[in-house]
């Protein structure tokens, strides 16, 4: 089993400390920067938009992992100028044209990822498993940092792993987002999650950043 990877949730860094955190993450070889994009309708909050994403991309070599929490993603995908190799997650619940959107990303060389909310059944993956690189499992109802995990989603990750394997897609990865404490991360790693969104529950808190990162890594197979 491969070691788990970290996607650091840049929304948790505070607007004045974004680049300080990015430099710490570069120094620690963090694998991804998780960038939350919110439109105020799909989720009851606003977060980063296209200009921020374009600027951040110029400032770091860490791979971006953009989480689009928007309605009608099909109208918005070309706003971001997504680059080959980047990861982009789209919500199943946010568009009637999910296959078209995933196909659009794949043609650009972007890794298409499907995001599913806690209440969305895993069976929706059946028709799109051929078109995705990963599944972003929401462990909270998205929109805000600092929420408590929806308990059944810990075991949901294991069901998703088995479901993807049974569909013939062992290569499709699982990423876990929302209230990823070290304790939850350890359970989710055991249940098959591969990438862990690190927010206020793990690395964005009081303490030595190298140590906070190391503690999370210890929970995910390092
Ligand atoms: C989902 C966001 C949040 C957040 C994660 O919309 O990705 O889940 O950044 O951080 P915490 O640890 O605060 O849930
Ligand atoms: Zn997110």
UniProtKB/TrEMBL annotation:
E.C. designation(s): 5.1.3.1
SUPFAM superfamilies noted in UniProt: Ribulose-phoshate binding barrel
Keyword annotations of the record: Isomerase, Metal-binding
GO molecular function: D-ribulose-phosphate 3-epimerase activity; metal ion binding
Keyword Isomerase on entry: yes
GO BP of this protein: carbohydrate metabolic process
InterPro entries attached to this UniProt entry: Aldolase_TIM (IPR013785), Ribul_P_3_epim-like (IPR000056), RibuloseP-bd_barrel (IPR011060)
Keyword Metal-binding belongs to the record: yes
Top class in the EC scheme: isomerase
NCBIfam families linked: PRK05581.1-4
Protein's UniProt name: Ribulose-phosphate 3-epimerase
Organism: Roseburia faecis
């Amino acid at each position: 089993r491969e070691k788990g990877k970290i996607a650091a949730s840049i929304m948790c860094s505070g607007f004045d400390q974004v680049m300080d955190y990015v430099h710490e993450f570069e120094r620690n070889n963090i694998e991804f920067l998780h960038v939350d994009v919110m439109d105020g309708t799909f989720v009851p909050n606003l977060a980063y938009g296209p200009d921020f994403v374009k600027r951040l991309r110029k400032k770091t070599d860490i791979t971006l992992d953009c989480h689009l929490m928007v309605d009608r993603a099909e109208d918005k995908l070309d706003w971001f100028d997504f680059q080959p190799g980047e990861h982009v997650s789209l919500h199943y619940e946010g568009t009637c044209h999910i296959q078209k959107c995933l196909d659009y990303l794949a043609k650009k060389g972007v890794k298409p990822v499907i995001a599913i909310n806690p209440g969305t059944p895993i069976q929706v993956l059946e028709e799109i498993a051929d078109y995705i690189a990963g599944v972003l499992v929401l462990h909270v109802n998205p929109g805000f940092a600092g929420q408590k995990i929806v308990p059944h989603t810990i075991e949901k990750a294991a069901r998703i792993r088995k479901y993807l394997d049974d569909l013939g897609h062992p290569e499709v990865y699982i990423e876990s987002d929302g209230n990823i404490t070290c304790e939850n991360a350890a359970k989710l790693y055991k249940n098959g999650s591969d990438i862990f969104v690190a927010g206020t529950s793990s690395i964005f808190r009081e303490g030595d950043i190298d140590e906070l990162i190391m503690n999370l890594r210890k929970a995910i197979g390092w």
